Amino acid sequence: MKSTILFLACAFAAGTAYAQIDTVSYPEQRKQVLELLHRAGPGTEKSCGDLIAVGPKGDLSLSRKEWSAVQSKEQVVFKSVQIVPGTEIVRVYDGTAAVVNFLADVALKVDGKDLRLKVRRLEVYHKTPTGWCMVAGQGTQVDEAMFPVKTP
Question: For a surface tag, which of 11, 25, 70, 129 has the fewest beta carbons within 10 Å of its beta carbon?
């Protein structure tokens, strides 16, 4: 009985240690992803063409070309996407994959109407021989009336 309890305690402790947030590994790769993220803007290509993306109306696209066509058809025009400073979180895995989260201030036009909103973005990047490419992305509008955004 004591050995079972000891085993479970060790297993729990090992699992807990494994789940800690890693904010220091792969500093060079983290820097590269952040540079790509900050120099990108509307019309800037971050993907290498192969992309799984969820658009602002919940539409699913399986390439950058398909995503662009859907946004054009739905009359969605991104005017600006500004990262809210200090909200970027980058986690790098094995030096070849990165998961990025940030808050963005977005200005867009939908069906001829101008909108400004806050969007929490989640993007996934893969390192190729030529550099980092976004391979997946999705944004969720933050309802600031219900959940006011507090920035650092």
Answer: 129
Nearest to 29 by CA among 88, 90, 112, 105: 90
5, 68 Cβ separation under 8 angstroms = no
Closest CA to 40 of 13, 64, 73: 64
Place of tokens 């200090």: 86
For tokens 């993220």, name the residue: 37
In a domain, 150, yes or no: no
Give the per-residue SS3 of 83-132. ECCCCCEEEEECCCEEEEEEEEEEEEEECCEEEEEEEEEEEEEEEECCEE
- The total of structural domains in the chain comes to 1
- Looking at residue 88, its pLDDT comes to 92
| CATH number for 57 | 3.10.450.50
* CA dist., res. 60 & res. 62, Å (int): 7
